[in-house]
Amino acid sequence: MIRVAIGQDSHRFEPDGSDKKLILGGVVIEGCPGLSGNSDADVVLHALTNAVSGITCVNILGEEADRMCRQGVTDSRAYLKAAMGRMEKGSRILHVSISIEALRPRLSPHIERIRTSLAELLGIDRGSIGITATTGEGLSEFGKGTGIFCTVILTMEVPE
User: Fold this and answer.
1) How far apart are CA 32 and CA 106, in angstroms?
2) pLDDT tens across 101-129, in order?
3) Could you give the 3-state DSSP secondary structure of residue 122?
4) Is the per-residue pLDDT at 24 higher than 90?
5) How far apart are CA 111 and CA 140, in angstroms?
6) CATH number of the structural domain spanning residue 13
7) Dihedral Cα 136, 142, 144, 145, nearest 10 deg
8) Pairing of strands 129-134, 21-24
């Protein structure tokens, strides 16, 4: 059986001059402040974690991630792994489509590194991960540069 889920997340930037690193899809992006949040605030991994939760029907971001944060786990890769641990045995991720809205940083130079990082985390081929980026013509707060918004559509095969 094929299931499809959507996940989304958004975070504001830390103030300019903050020491927090910007991390997207598990990749450190230099030259831009990090995103505000208790964790590393990786909007790509958070949106992906929410999409996995949409298929497993077990929310990870919220109580479980908050508990992990209190225990010092702020790497969003751990939240994604927790969500994937709830996948039914024999499930297989078929495709991931990611859309990122942000004025800054310019994302096109980083997309291939993010795809590689995600492929390793998900255990799938890079060719099964599509990433697009837009400024949204500056119509939203993200397109005006106050933060980053990410939407993920996940397609997964699950046992019947």
Assistant:
1) 10
2) 999 999 999 999 999 999 999 999 999 99
3) helix
4) yes
5) 22
6) 3.30.1330.50
7) -130
8) unpaired
Tell me the residue range of the domain where 63 lies. 2-157
Separation between Cα atoms, residue 71 and residue 95, nearest integer Å: 32
In 25-128, the DSSP E strands lie at: 27-33, 92-101
CA distance 131 to 137: 18
Give the closest residue to 23 by CA, choosing from 15, 8, 5, 11: 11
The tokens for 78 are: 């751990």
pLDDT in tens, 63-100: 999 999 999 999 999 999 999 999 999 999 999 999 99
d(CA 38, CA 40): 7
Q: How far apart are CA 143 and CA 135, in angstroms?
A: 5
Instruction: Quote the number of domains for the chain.
Output: 1
**How many CA atoms, within 13 angstroms, populate the side-chain half-sphere of residue 68?**
19
Q: Are 63 and 27 in contact (CB under 8 A)?
A: no
